[in-house]
Design a protein that fits this description.
The chain has 4 helices and 16 strands. The protein has 316 residues and is an alpha/beta fold. An 8-stranded parallel beta sheet has the order 1-3-5-7-9-11-13-15, with helices on one face. Strands 2-4-6-8-10-12-14-16 form an 8-stranded parallel beta sheet, with helices on one face.
Length: 316
Amino acid sequence: MNGLPIDALLPPAHPLKAGGNEPPYTRNDGIRLGMADNGFMLCTPEKTKAAQPVRIIRTSDHNACNNIITMEAESCADVLLVYPRLSGKISGNNDLTEIHLKENAVLNLIFLQDTESIPRLQTKTVVRQASGSRMTVHYATLSGEYVRNELHVNLDGSHAEHQAYGLAFTEGSEYAGYEVQITHTSPECRSNQLFKQILSGTSTGSFSGKVTVNRNAQKTAAYQRSSNILLDLKAKMTILPHLEIYADDVKCSHGATVGQLNNEALFYLRSRGIGKIEAKKILLLSFLEETIKNIKYQYIKDKITQKLIQKMEKNH
């Protein structure tokens, strides 16, 4: 897997702060910061573009990491955060990542989580975006006994954009949960949330999505959707969509679905000579495709697809 090495992985000295409302920190975040003894700090200089994706692998057994990403004005970078399987005794990971995008900066961030050997993984990402900045985040939760991701975004400057995508495939007694809060504080900003999960066995999942549009954030466009498939009757999914709108010139929508595989589509594929297991794989991969199609690196999409196929073959 190609990537751009990071010159230094340093414990951040101070938490990132930006203008406007204070970031949504909680008492638990204070505990997390107090425990953090490791982490990385990444800063892209003004008007620079990383030639290759920056790849950061979470290989340490430190329970808590406090990370900082600062994108200076008109800079651009792609960052891949990898949470791999680790050997040895690890009680869990609890990471806080603070991100500040200055004017017209662009960041593509991917969380690749395949943490079968880690009992508990929790991440919280706090984002502040200035005028004209664009950020896309992809979560791929491929395994893990308990995985919870939080994303809090403040669109502080006008014409800022944020796209958030997530997919999870849980089996056995696994849990995967997402909490996303996007606050529009300035006019003519755009946000989109698209999260999809497949649940089998007795696994559970959750999605809590909130969009807040402040009074001054006129001409906002904000969209939210959560779609989920239960492969077994004992699997459970909880969805909490929420729109809080104080402006009157906006375009906002949300949608949420929980269901099973489309039997008519399954019958159609089987009538064309495709076996049952292969037909289910085609439908499930098609269901999740929308969440990964915008990842521009094919080797990352291939890695995600390969792991999904392995889980589908185990849970046919």
